[in-house]
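Q: Sequence in, structure out?
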Amino acid sequence: MMRFVYIVFFLEAGFVLIVLPWLAFWDRNYFAQLVPPLQDVLTNNFVRGAVSGFGVVNIVVGLGELLSLLASRTSQRPASINPSQLAND
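A: Exactly. Output:
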């Protein structure tokens, strides 16, 4: 169950980090307005792209964990028993 929470966290954080830097909300950051040089850095398109790239990394990690979770669920099924194995016991 905890692994599923990690997957949801990575996917959600990834989507937020991809979208958030390109919204107007990013430009009206209270802390960035207090320090004008920080405002210049945060509104730079390269910084926005880097934050979005980090979001893509989060999504890739989340999808990798999801595939790993699904693969572990299918490999944990018990093997079928052949009738010949029952006769030997």
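The chain is about 80% helix and 0% strand.
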